[in-house]
Amino acid sequence: xxxxxxxxxxxxxxxxxxxxxxxxxxxxxxxxxxxxxxxxxxxxxxxxxxxxxxxxxxxxxxxxxxxxxxxxxxxxxxxxxxxxxxxxxxxxxxxxxxxxxxxxxxxxxxxxxxxxxxxxxxxxxxxxxxxxxxxxxxxxxxxxxxxxxxxxxxxxxxxxxxxxxxxxxxxxxxxxxxxxxxxxxxxxxxxxxxxxxxxxxxxxxxxxxxxxxxxxxxxxxxxxxxxxxxxxxxxxxxxxxxxxxxxxxxxxxxxxxxxxxxxxxxxxx
Length: 269
Known about the structure:
By secondary structure, the chain is mainly α.
């Protein structure tokens, strides 16, 4: 079992190691050094060229990804927490059917929804705008499922009843009583939302044409399609990919304790 875990860890880490070593190379070093060898140290020059290429468009891509992923993760996790809490702790007609439909939504690939989302965005006349990508990212059936499981496990009915006896309404009970108890689960949903939105590619590809609205993933893809004709884009794509991975690593390290608690609670339940 330990050997299998080591192999899986190496399989996961080797692409990151390749990114680190390749980001330090100049264009000529790619043909004279091995995949995991360091060439002449050229990292800072690559970073400088990356941020000045095409009038600094990479800055726009980074800012867009932060807005899409940061705003979408915070608002999306709050929406998921509210939905999961409502399904787990309130009684209303059709609750079981609604939860069944939510579980069905987990099974639907996001690529299947791309065309309907484009048609809806076209009807609303928001195609090629920030909102065309941002609004669909606020829904996450798996996040609702995870929040429901965590609310059912971590929020006692007696505490909610005590809050109602004290005169707290539904919103106040949720925000002041239930939400703090659900914090590890909410952080787990937030992390999943952040990673999913940061790596989102197909939806922006369908809905956006203005390069200044692209997230990092789509922007780097556009550059990668030019590598055959313009080899100078190769170090830029690799260096940009390395920088694009860093926020995900930081998010995992910062939220490490909280999201592990949330996953453990969901698995036990």
